Each structure stands twice: as structure tokens, then as C-alpha cells.
Amino acid sequence: MHPTGHEAPARDVLDDAAEVFALLSVPRRLHLLWILSTDEVDVTTLVAAVGGTKAGISQHLAKLRLAGWVDSRREGRRLLYRVTDPHIVTLVHQAVEHILDLRD
Fold it and tell me: 3-class DSSP state for residue 104?
């Protein structure tokens, strides 16, 4: 049930929302989500785009998969990743747009 008017969400809802922001608080994860929100990409391509190591990017992807935001599919020998949660795409894009607006 969604809160109405000035009614605050339940504490457990706020706790879960804070977890969303905790996962989004890592710039490299935001970068991954930005890229994966528009295309299916393999780990090698993500490493080249975002930087870091294959193991590090794989760890970030594992956390994003655990959250249910990202999934993968096999294409030949490659695993292609993509964002599956449209709410996360909206949050990431709005956060970036907000910063760009502040800088104008």
C-alpha cells in the first residue's frame, strides 16, 4: 500500500529504500547501470568502458543481480548483461540529469 498525503511510509519500506541508495552509492555501479540500461553488454566490454578489473566488475554485477536489477543471458560463449528493473533505470537517469541541471 502506498502512503497518501503526509503519511510516512512504514519503517521497513524506508529501510529497503535506503538499501537501494546504498547499492547506488558506488559510482562504478552507477556507470554499469547506465550502460546496461540501454544495451546488453558482456563483462569485457564493461571493463573497457568503466575501468577496473574483470573480477571487480563481476562482483558489482553479482550484487546488482542479487538485488534483482540485472540479469544475463548466454550468447555463445559470452554472458550478456542488462538491466531488468525500469525503476532503477529511472532513478539512475534522474540522478544524473539532476546533477547536469545543477551544473548548468
Answer: coil
Measured CA to CA, the distance from residue 67 to residue 85 in angstroms comes to 10
Cα separation, 85 vs 83, whole angstroms = 6
Grid coordinates representing 92 are: 539512475
Residue 32: name the closest of 8, 12, 52 by CA: 52
Look up cell 562504478; give the residue: 28
CB atoms near residue 99 (< 10 Å): 9
What pTM, to 2 d.p., does this model score?
A: 0.88
Q: Cβ distance 33 to 88 under 8 Å?
A: yes
CB 89 within 8 A of CB 37: yes
Q: pLDDT tens for residues 6-20?
A: 889 999 999 999 999
